[in-house]
Amino acid sequence: MHPTFQSHDHSxxxxxxxxxxxxxMTERGARLTPVRKRVLEILLEAHRALGAYDVxxxxxxxxxGNQPPVAYRALDFLVEQGLAHRIQRLNAFTAxxxxxxxxxxxxxxxxxxxxxxxxxxxxxxxxxxxxxxxLGFALERASIEAIGLCPNCxxxx
Amino acid sequence: MHPTFQSHDHSxxxxxxxxxxxxxMTERGARLTPVRKRVLEILLEAHRALGAYDVxxxxxxxxxGNQPPVAYRALDFLVEQGLAHRIQRLNAFTAxxxxxxxxxxxxxxxxxxxxxxxxxxxxxxxxxxxxxxxLGFALERASIEAIGLCPNCxxxx
DNA sequence: GGTAACTTGTTACGATATAACATGTCAAGA
DNA sequence: TCTTGACATGTTATATCGTAACAAGTTACC
Lengths: 157, 157
Known about the structure:
2 copies of one chain form a homodimer. Chain A has 157 residues and is α+β, with helices and mostly antiparallel strands. Chain A has helices at 10-28, 34-46, 52-61, 68-80, 122-134, 151-156; strands at 84-87, 92-95, 106-110, 116-119, 138-149.
């Protein structure tokens, strides 16, 4: 099975990613404040997509504000900084697993267990850009979200 | 400029598409009832993505029900039948411009004027499938939505 | 013309998201 | 140091998007 989907110790990948995130924020002069950091941790620990209200609920039990903007602002910040991604299809957010690497990922969403994997899609993106250019469309960003079964659920079925 | 983006007589493309839709529904034994047909017309006339509540408002002024489920049910039906598409990014719906042709389109969304074009993406999809298969992921459906500037707005800028 | 499947309408509510404003915090320069 | 401006957080209120559940009407078909 590809490592993307292998079960593993989430606390490790969370720690690594968190360290990289902090380094990046320092480098950029952006502030990874307590709420923001905690939201990032929450996403990293979950290791799947969480809705803004899921995140909010956890924040609230930890003494942070319990109103929607608290969660949305932190999430928006993380997305802007490339530390998290928004999954349109799920109205949900997920931690970026490749912080710092310039990437424009596609998401593979398992319809059974809801895990979300970031897939490398350089060839996909190149094809999309070629198509857009052929139509005279100036492509800026694209979201690519695939639905299907992850290897684990595929095997179980 | 590519025909996809050329200005043209919408009433024509609406008429053609509507005729094809009716034929297809007959063939399938599905019923293109008055509400459903009207919703399809509304989408075809708009020629851009409309929110469910936009559609609902128009329906209401024409004597149909004015509660959300009326619009959502018709829209869901059209999407299921492949007569319309849902644009996740906009929480909106758009008429399918290639009814009957088997297709799995990408959408090119202009961030300036909100027009939505369906682009042919056989190569993009092939690349995506190859990537997914490489990860052991069983791809079923995918939504590809690109943001950028359409030729018209690009020229204006 | 009875009946089962489907369609529409309505009420009520749940889920997702943002505007606007008050308060608090921090860092840099006077 | 103290002021000041930029940024961050908290809160109220509300906007926007979407669906569950049930009643009533319609259609196809035996």
